[in-house]
Amino acid sequence: MAKGFGGRGMPGMGGGMNMNMLKQAQKMQQDMMRLQQELQEKEYQAAAGGGVVSATVNGKHELKALVIDPEAVDPDDVEMLQDMIVAAVNEAMRAADSDAASTMQSITGGLGLPF
Known about the structure:
Elements: H1 15-41, E1 43-48, E2 53-58, E3 63-68, H2 78-108
Antiparallel strand pairs: 1-2, 2-3
Helix pairs in contact: 1-2
Main location: cytoplasm
Protein name: Nucleoid-associated protein H8S11_08155
GO molecular function: DNA binding
């Protein structure tokens, strides 16, 4: 056996320090799993075209609702309506992603861990 290595933890460190680090890592993992579940259930809403189109998505990137003001429906300009729908949905998705990133950053302390 190598000198100075008693088989418990790292040389020069008490075994208690390694156990404490392991417990902290396990707690962080549990917190991250709980937050991921919460984020998936949250809903995010965004609007486009001055509010005539609004989209609601959840944290799993599923479109949950789409509201279109009847005034936005112009049979001669369907393309504009389509663009507003895409813009509203994409903005809601960005809001979900941004919230997830900032929430996970608060748990990991900027360790750069994937979620």
